[in-house]
Amino acid sequence: MQREKLVLIGNGMAGIRCIEEILKRSNSFDITVFGAEPYTNYNRILLSTVLQGDTSIQDIMLHQRSWYEENRITLFTGETVTQINRNEKTIFTDQGRTVAYNKLIIATGSSPFILPIPGADMEGVKTFRTIKDCEEMIKASEQYKKAVVIGGGLLGLEAARGLMNLGMKVDVVHLADALMNRQLDMVAAKMLKKELERQGMNFLLGKNTAEIVGNQRAEEIHFTDGSKVEADLVVMAAGVKPNVEVARESGLTVNRGIVVNDYLQTEDCDIYALGECCEHNGVVYGLVKPLYEQGRVLADHICQQGENGYQGTILSTQLKISGVDLFSVGDFEDANGTQAVCVLDETKSIYKKLVFKNDILVGAVLFGSTKEGPGLLEMMIKKQDVSEIDKLSLLQSDGENSAVCSMTQEETICHCNNVTKGAIIEAVTEKDLQTIDEVKSCTKASSSCGGCKPLLTELFSYIKSDDFEEFVVKQSMCQCTMLTEDEVIQQIQEHRLTSFESIVQELKWSNKKGCLKCQKALQYYLKIMYPELQQQKSESGYPQLQKDGTYSLTPQFYGGLANIDDLQHVLDVAKKYNVSDISFSHEQRIELHGIKRENIREISTSLHLPILAQDQTMVTIKRASYRNECECEQKSIFPLSYKLDQAFERLTMPNRLAIGLSSCVHEEHQLSGQDILIIGEERGFETYIKIPNESLSHLLFIAKDYKESVEMMKALIQYYRETASYLEEFGVWVQRLTDVHIREVLFEQNFKDLLCERLHQDQSRKASSLQQ
């Protein structure tokens, strides 16, 4: 099976997160990554913490070269893609390299905006965007002591704080009359200015820069109002512009960014764009949360596993400066139809403002205390109606740990990486994590923008305190024991308990006879663990007792295929024994009804056909209705449905499992609701798995022919039988283990062969017991 060539232009946070998501869903791509910088993927957002001296460059590296190698990704660093040939599907680089692609992702990010003024290219004028910029600013601080940062937004203030930490005197120049005027209202902006002035920062607001003056190196900045300020280091932090040149030159539509649809797809269906270089519904995003959300949507689409497109992101801002707690989200300016709730405590330098529209939170600004930030963001995302809530109570904290104490375990701490409070509690308590860095490494919380670090730190302190009394609720197997299902299975294996009686005695069941739930569950586990010790009665589970006291039987026609002689024989047997009704089930089976108990064995023998089980051994194979009119039909699925029916006959399963087969993608709608869907395509049999709460199935593997499809399916079903909990639905099992893990198991040849062999052995034992 030939793998598709996927090329990523850009080795930044957005592009590599998208690759991570693709790797979770599929291994069918040969991936090549080009990065203009000479580094592996790093957290650009935390460069300000490096400049401020809080972290090192090594600390912000997200992936080492070994990660690329382990995932078979070809990485070219320090190499820029200069041209895309869309007709030939190739890219060209500044190193003379030519690489072909089937799918192309452009994630070129953005570049700092350089003011078009005289002197902007002078020595001593820097930008703040890359590791190189950071290193040059640190080096400059060793020789020069007077810096000016142009730009009073988020990046500019973080850069200024870093330069101050390096011992420089810093002026911040801002065109507007308020700092962070896009993220803060006037009250919060004034409080921020006051706090930063207290720390030693100086501000020149309402200033329009005219030119940078000096003898080879910057010495002064002149403004349009005639004033000037000394500077031997000038840092441009007045915004960014998307890197769209290579896309524009290839003929793709570009406005401010590369124009994409809801699936991050350009007008060329094989070229995608995401991150700071793309424009979705007129918006170009520059924060990490929307970039990660775009990566998930793009991965779903390129792996044909999702149909929900990107719908935009609610943006929140948190300043990363020591001693300053600031959070803002949404539309916080008063407007027609909105209502605001404010709290101002000047003695403690605390200001909080919430803006509501029709009892829905639409914006918030927090200064001085930001504990409520994550909860407010989640409230906005969910569009929670607060008409029955005292709105002022949303801003009142009771006690030191009130913010984390009042959160439910389902609420999100880290929105960038979707990490909940419960997930962090479980990780810290079960893995005995001792530091915030260990929590970040284990859960990924606060590993991206770092905005949730204050709340994460508070939660970690709370977990380690004497006041912590929460625990992650684990469901016991049943009312007869306090052990969870996993713990029971572990004990059965460790003590080699081979009977129901030995289990309830050894594990101290409160009810020695067990309950209906554990009786069935334990018998199932014993069958799976020790199939050689289990006996099966020849008629158990096959005839089904009906309400009127009669029975029904289902003759097994493998793959739903029957010839005229077989059908006639069934009719003859039905007439002979006065079978009252014959029906066709929704699972494409023939069912005989109204059978008397004394006739069950004779009818079963006379049919000369296997009798299909109707209990927990059920694996349903359903085909899309046959049509010989679709031009795209590539492979007949009749032989495959026949072989799969034979392969899974009489197997004990954790839960009923439905498998659908179609010769054509246009017929798959007939098979909605199936746990597994197999579609015959030109490249082979594509096998999809259904995930709970997701509208589109995930592609698990592609088998080149009938034989490989059957072998892969045998291994998949056997792995489900061996690792799923009793009554655990197939989709829930997939979600728990992840399709990436399952795929790794199936593509390990030795493991796959062992699974197939164990399935064959179990099926042979059952066939032998039926013949006794």
From TrEMBL:
UniProt cofactor note = Binds 1 [4Fe-4S] cluster per subunit.
* Pfam families found in the cross-reference section: Fer2_BFD, NIR_SIR_ferr, Pyr_redox_2, Rubredoxin_C
Every copy of the NADH-rubredoxin oxidoreductase C-terminal domain together lies at 316-383
Q: Which coenzymes or cofactors are required?
A: [4Fe-4S] cluster; [2Fe-2S] cluster; siroheme; FAD
Pathway(s) of this molecule: Nitrogen metabolism; nitrate reduction (assimilation)
Against SUPFAM superfamilies, the record matches this protein to: FAD/NAD(P)-binding domain (SSF51905), Nitrite and sulphite reductase 4Fe-4S domain-like (SSF56014), Nitrite/Sulfite reductase N-terminal domain-like (SSF55124)
Q: Which residues form the BFD-like [2Fe-2S]-binding domain?
A: 413-460, 477-527
GO molecular function per UniProt = 2 iron, 2 sulfur cluster binding; 4 iron, 4 sulfur cluster binding; flavin adenine dinucleotide binding; metal ion binding; NADP binding; nitrite reductase activity
Q: Output the Gene3D superfamilies linked to this UniProt entry.
A: 3.30.390.30, BFD-like [2Fe-2S]-binding domain, FAD/NAD(P)-binding domain, Sulfite Reductase Hemoprotein, domain 1
Biological process annotations from GO:
nitrate assimilation
- What this protein is called in its record is Nitrite reductase large subunit
The record's family statement is:
Belongs to the nitrite and sulfite reductase 4Fe-4S domain family.
Q: Which NCBIfam families match?
A: nitri_red_nirB
Residue ranges of every copy of the FAD/NAD(P)-binding domain listed in the record: 5-280
| Keywords on record | 2Fe-2S, 4Fe-4S, FAD, Flavoprotein, Heme, Iron, Iron-sulfur, Metal-binding, Nitrate assimilation, Oxidoreductase
Organism per entry: Priestia filamentosa
Q: Where is the Nitrite/Sulfite reductase ferredoxin-like domain?
A: 544-607
